Amino acid sequence: xxxxxxxxxxxxxxxxxxxxxxxxxxxxxxxxxxxxxxxxxxxxxxxxxxxxxxxxxxxxxxxxxxxxxxxxxxxxxxxxxxxxxxxxxxxxxxxxxxxxxxxxxxxxxxxxxxxxxxxxxxxxxxxxxxxxxxxxxxxxxxxxxxxxxxxxxxxxxxxxxxxxxxxxxxxxxxx
Length: 175
Hints:
Blueprint: H1 2-24, H2 27-49, H3 59-82, H4 86-91, H5 104-107, H6 111-127, H7 130-158, H8 162-168
């Protein structure tokens, strides 16, 4: 149980390191760090979802969980990997120099947080593990902290027009 929670915490810390290394422009470090974040996060999710003990839920809630997981996973990947230029953002040295303000990014500055929260809720309903029930709120809180740091520290340095985007687009809740 503790291993999954700790791995998830370290995954978020590695994501912060990814942003810092991106500003420094080191390609191989940036790629190694994103792979490490994905591996830690994947291990954390796997361990939390397939851990024991489990709790019981009515079948309709579990089915609803599958719908929620499917929809939120799609939207999460769409917002973070398709709407944003993937190569510039995650693979090439330096930072992505293109501010995306359309699609889900026109509604709020950090749509991934909403999709991540829905994904965690769906996974709790599907996996029904006590580990995930404890880890999910911690991971969501860390995601919010990560995004606040990105929004205030990293993104304004990476994208010159980000200050204007902050003034025009709400952070988490669409208006």
